[in-house]
Design brief:
161 residues, mainly beta, Immunoglobulin-like, conserved putative lor/sdh protein from methanococcus maripaludis s2 fold, three-stranded antiparallel β-sheet, 0% helix, elongated
Length: 161
């Protein structure tokens, strides 16, 4: 045991991977809140040291406790980038084929390949794919639907808008 090392402060580097379809407005030198579960959820701050692609590097300075291999929680606000939230029942993936949704385009169904990114709520999911925020997704009758089929939009009450 090295008595000189007791109570000596250390700096730690933390790497955080930003998931596909998300972005953050963090910049170099910016501070974020970090929670240290090993120290009874003590909160401190780390500084953004590097941003390379989808990985952000932070420096956590002046920590007296040993943190190597320990869990820390970094609070980062993420914004969707190229993601769309759609109803879960708008997703169609028959027998392991690519995940798709159908949109209404000029009165006809048009298939769009999707990648499921995350669950948004019990009834909605975040997806990445060639969608537009104005697209109307089809949520019923997907089992027998083929691209090009004539379709018409109805409200939840069954009325044609």
């Amino acid at each position: 045991m090295d008595p000189e090392g007791i109570g000596r402060a250390s700096d730690y580097k933390i790497a955080v991977h930003i998931p596909e379809g998300a972005q953050t407005d963090l910049s170099l030198g910016r501070s974020v809140r970090v929670t240290l579960p090993i120290v009874h959820d003590q909160q401190t701050h780390a500084v953004v040291e590097s941003i390379q692609g989808s990985e952000i590097g932070f420096r956590l300075s002046g920590q007296v406790q040993e943190l190597n291999g320990q869990e820390v929680r970094v609070e980062i606000v993420l914004q969707p980038r190229g993601l769309f939230k759609i109803p879960f029942n708008a997703v169609y993936s028959p027998r392991g084929n690519p995940v798709q949704t159908f949109i209404v385009s000029e009165g006809r169904a048009q298939a769009r390949d999707l990648k499921i990114v995350a669950l948004a709520s019990p009834t909605e999911i975040w997806v990445a794919g060639p969608l537009d925020p104005r697209d109307e997704v089809i949520v019923q009758g997907l089992d027998n639907l083929i691209s090009g089929d004539a379709v018409k939009a109805v409200t939840p009450e069954g009325d044609i808008p």
